[in-house]
Design brief:
Number of domains: 2
CATH class of the largest domain: Alpha Beta
CATH topology of the largest domain: Rossmann fold
Radius of gyration: 18 Å
Structural class: alpha/beta
Largest sheet: 7 strands, mixed
Distance between the termini: 42 Å
Order of helices and strands: HHHEHEHEEHEHEEEEHEE
Low-confidence stretches: none
Strand content: 25-35%
Mean pLDDT: 96
Number of helices: 8
Oligomer: single chain
Shape: globular
CATH superfamily of the largest domain: Vaccinia Virus protein VP39
Number of strands: 11
Length: 249
């Protein structure tokens, strides 16, 4: 049986709502913030779960040598089209993040937009981090950006709805399970008289839990922030951003 993230129809249908123009317009600013966090101006970058390639392309425009990895053909096609339009070269690779590894190849690795924790078996999250650690050069830096458990506990609504410009109504339902370690989501798209439902789930991590995973994967100097802009992490932080370095041998 396929896992939810293997369903191409899921990504195709929800793409306009996950990646609206307003989100894409934020990419330049997000990349500037990322580069301040990692303190790099050049080098090789791995964008793991690159999606439609919005960060990968901007990084390539800034002169970085970028590899974008995703398992979804639809999103990789979007990414390749974006790179062609920008006239930059990006090495896009179709691979599951549990499988991709390129030893000692990258100065920077990124995993953004809550693209972590998809798997029912939490050991597979650990494997992803071990692969990332192995793929970094000594002294390389990894940035993870997810929604934090502390923030979610404060703001979570069981049901919400949004009406979009095209008249579509997106209804979102959320349920916490497995002792507050997982979230089950149901997104319902209502277009006129037709409703389409998608269900997906992922693991939630607090700052302390994510730090522990990174320590176990071999990272050093793990620092937590509440946003890509570098603000402190805490219960009012909208994001959980971890910056972790691979020790110099």
């Amino acid at each position: 049986m396929k896992e939810w993230f293997e369903n191409e129809i899921f990504w195709q249908t929800l793409y306009p709502y996950m990646f609206p123009p307003t989100r894409c317009e934020q990419t330049e600013g997000e990349v500037r913030q990322l580069l301040r966090l990692v303190k790099r101006r050049r080098g090789t970058v791995l964008d793991l779960c690159c999606g439609p390639g919005r960060h990968a392309v901007v990084l390539a425009q800034r002169g970085f040598q970028v590899t974008g990895v995703d398992r979804t053909r639809f999103l990789l096609n979007k990414a390749r089209h974006r790179a062609r339009q920008a006239k930059v070269e990006v090495d896009f690779v179709r691979s599951d993040m549990r499988d991709f590894i390129r030893p000692d190849a990258f100065d920077v690795a990124l995993n953004l937009f809550t693209s972590f924790g998809y798997f029912d078996n939490k050991d597979e999250d650990r494997q992803v981090l071990r692969n990332l650690h192995a793929s970094l050069k000594p002294g390389g830096v990894f940035v993870a950006d997810v929604i934090g458990k502390e923030w979610l506990a404060k703001v979570l609504q069981a049901t919400s709805s949004t009406k979009h410009a095209d008249g579509t109504i997106l209804v979102q339902r959320h349920e916490i399970f497995d002792d507050w370690s997982r979230i089950r989501n149901e997104w319902i798209l209502v277009r006129g008289q037709q409703a389409t439902t998608f269900r997906f789930h992922h693991t939630l991590y607090s700052g302390q839990e994510l730090r522990l995973l990174l320590d176990q994967a071999g990272f050093s100097e793990v620092k937590l922030f509440g946003h890509l802009d570098g603000r402190p992490y805490g219960p009012d932080a909208p994001r959980l951003v971890a910056v972790a370095r691979k020790a110099v041998a």
